[in-house]
Design goal:
The complex is a heterodimer of chains A (510) and B (172). With 510 residues, chain A is an all-alpha fold. Helix content of chain A is 73%, strand content 1%. The chains are: A mainly alpha (510), B mainly alpha (172).
Chain lengths: 510, 172
């Protein structure tokens, strides 16, 4: 059980008063980010990232990961109280959360949501604790073909797990790769895709893309829908409600465990938190004896999506720290942070920077506990933030986004890119082009290309190197199955002509 | 992209999803073709010395963008069940422009007036014109946000943001 010893060492690293303050600050900031329209986990962290460059990496990652937990919690508040999902993965929480709030049981719904989120995240962190070192150990043997096949699997998973047209998913992803290729080719030093424009020499930074696509794009969408927030219920939570709800929750343990496992699975293979929450809700609805009452305000209908969303959001960090391949845009931003602090994410991180990795994992445990306490005590405060009129919030958020985009590289042209990405984000979102694969492709583009070129060099241009041993062969084959999954599932449906999944229709494109 | 959409929205007061879909797919086709062209220019073949040339990987990226967008274009123009619902009606698009246009002006402002002055003007203008706020709360919020920003970046974190004539006059 050397993991346990390492973990306790991690707790010792993390548990300084200063780090504990950063943790609380991170959670509070995170919840505010999760509650506000136009700021989400990914771009909130992207904006704050430059501010942490001067900090010690361990303290910085503690604060940033706590912002992440906070943002995950924040989405539930808006879903339940306002019927507005603050984040795509909290859409499924509105189905039962909002009816409960309308019945005056908002406190109960919020407590259930926060506790299930905590549970889901906790399960995922335990899995990370024991699985990440194993995966990293395993990955130490990886050569370029293995890495390329894992990248391939990552991107093909989006096609299998994503909703909507597979062609749009691939086009969006490839656009990300193309944007990543702009600038100087790292291998030959040639200029690519710059068309003689000097501003394009430095390429596109994915942080700017994240801020534009998710921040400005979201503001434009919110603007289009009009500016009104309708407050459904007061978000009052007191100790009595919390204890009463906690007494009820153990009865949904199967749903919670099932949700967590679904979440972990989809988080590690980058399906993302949104499909996970919908799948968990759908499965719970089918399995529960109160299944037909779902949608009218069932606590179980909150437990299912919340455990899955948090388990997925948390376990997306597993491939990020053990392989250097993030499972979600937010994990990608954290990965960007690691690179800027001079830490190379991937299997070697466990060997070379054990302190840092175990500090991060310990911070996940403590950050979750801190998060649960903060959200349970401060709901009225966060609900009050939502009552600030949009005419005040919108320009302030745009200013914050602009500052964030500028500070990434101290370049004014990035503010222009941000606005352009914002408009692209708006159009893409409306046309159901998914944004997550685009962002991940910008982050991973260069490294995927490097591993591809190295494998090709080794094999003298022979593509069969991707099947050269059982390991790389099975990953590549799995990737191809994922890629053609839309076709395969169509075929399967034709054979079985089964039930139509109505929940799929309501799921947003991430 | 921006231009095509704006003119369409004006011309017919609204445009359907499939039209925007087709236009976007056409733009992506163009981008795909451009990527392929440039990849071909830098060399997209296999060379005995360096192995895959600089354009080897981007060429297939461009090809995939192109092919996928051709399919999307086809689906949005010829498919029977294409989405003819309204993409954005004029009043909605007007609200989007109410944010988009000031943001562009703001970006111009950042490079001339500096980020603090233009942020104050941007937030203030937004609150006055769209929020119909009175002068006092507007001033409090807009100047307050810029002041906090100034304190945080220039004083606390020592990260210089773009500054203009006003800051120069004040000695920063």
């Amino acid at each position: 059980m050397e993991e346990i010893a390492a973990l306790f060492h991690g707790f010792a690293v993390v548990l300084s008063p200063e780090n504990f303050m950063l943790m609380l600050l991170g959670v509070v900031l995170g919840v505010i980010i999760g509650v506000l329209p136009g700021l989400g986990g990914a771009n909130g962290i992207a904006i704050l990232l430059p501010l942490t460059f001067s900090m010690d990496p361990t303290s910085a990652i503690i604060m940033l990961s706590c912002i992440y937990w906070g943002a995950l919690f924040g989405g539930a508040i808006t879903s339940i109280l306002f019927n507005i999902p603050g984040e795509p993965w909290s859409v499924a929480t509105t189905f039962d959360g909002y009816p409960l709030a309308q019945q005056g049981r908002a406190g109960e719904a919020l407590t259930a949501a926060f506790t299930s989120s905590f549970f889901g995240a906790f399960v995922a962190v335990v899995i990370i604790t024991f699985l990440a070192p194993l995966v990293a150990d395993f990955a130490l043997e990886f050569g370029p073909p293995e890495f390329f096949s894992v990248y391939l699997l990552t991107f093909c998973s989006f096609v299998a797990m994503g909703k909507g047209s597979p062609f749009k998913i691939i086009a969006s992803m490839m656009l990300g790769f193309a944007l990543a290729a702009v600038g100087i080719d790292t291998v030959t030093g040639q200029l690519r895709l710059t068309f003689g424009i000097t501003e394009l020499l430095k390429g596109f930074d994915f942080l700017v893309a994240v801020i534009g696509l998710f921040g400005i794009g979201e503001i434009l969408l919110t603007m289009e829908e009009g500016l009104e927030f309708r407050a459904a219920a007061q978000g009052k939570i007191n100790l009595k409600v919390v204890l009463e709800t906690w007494a009820k929750l153990p009865r949904y343990w199967i749903t919670a465990i099932r949700g967590s496992l679904i979440g972990c699975w989809l988080g590690i293979t980058p399906g993302g938190a949104t499909p996970a929450s919908f799948m968990s809700y759908g499965v719970a609805k089918r399995m529960s004896k109160d299944g037909d009452k779902f949608g009218t305000g069932q606590i179980e209908g909150i437990v299912a999506p919340e455990t899955a969303a948090h388990a997925a959001g948390t376990s997306a960090l597993l491939p990020m720290i053990s392989l250097g391949i993030p499972g979600s845009p937010t994990a990608a931003v954290l990965l960007g942070g690691l690179l800027i602090w001079g830490l190379q994410p991937g299997p070697l991180l466990f060997v070379e920077k054990a302190d840092f990795v175990w500090g991060l994992i310990a911070a996940m445990y403590l950050g979750n506990i801190a998060g649960l306490i903060v959200v349970l005590t401060c709901v009225p405060l966060f609900a009050a933030i939502l009552r600030i009129p949009f005419a005040v919030i919108a320009p302030v958020i745009i200013v914050i986004c602009a500052v964030g985009a500028y500070t990434v590289a101290n370049a004014q042209v990035d503010i222009w890119y941000m606005i352009a990405f914002g408009f692209i984000g708006y159009v893409f979102k409306k046309l159901e082009y998914p944004l997550a694969p685009l962002v991940l492709a910008i982050v991973l583009g260069d490294r995927a290309e490097d591993s591809f070129r190295q494998s090709m060099l080794v094999a003298q241009g022979d593509l069969t190197v991707l099947w050269s041993n059982w390991l790389v062969g099975s990953i590549t084959t799995l990737a191809l199955v994922m890629l053609f999954w839309p076709l395969i599932s169509k075929g399967l449906k034709r054979i079985r002509s089964g039930r139509i999944d109505t929940l799929q229709e309501q799921r947003p494109v991430e | 992209m921006e231009h095509g959409e704006g003119t369409q929205a004006k011309a017919e007061k609204s445009c359907s999803v499939c039209v925007v879909d087709a236009v976007t797919a056409a733009i992506l086709m163009l981008i795909g073709a451009l990527v392929m062209y440039d990849a071909h220019r830098v060399g997209s073949a296999w060379s005995p010395e360096v192995g895959p040339q600089a354009g080897y990987f981007p060429f297939y990226i461009g090809l995939l963008i192109f092919v996928c967008s051709v399919v999307t274009f086809y689906q949005s123009t010829f498919s029977k069940n294409r989405d003819r619902s309204v993409f954005v009606d004029w009043s909605q698009f007007k609200r989007v422009l109410q944010v988009l246009v000031p943001s562009i002006v703001y970006a111009v402002g950042v490079s001339t007036l500096g980020i603090y002055v233009s942020s104050t003007l941007f937030i203030g203008g937004f609150m006055l014109l769209l929020g119909k706020y009175r002068i006092l709360p507007t001033l409090l919020v807009s100047v307050g946000v810029s002041a906090v920003m100034f304190w945080m970046f220039e004083v606390q974190f020592l990260i210089p943001l773009p500054k203009g004539p006003l800051e120069a006059w004040l000695g920063y």
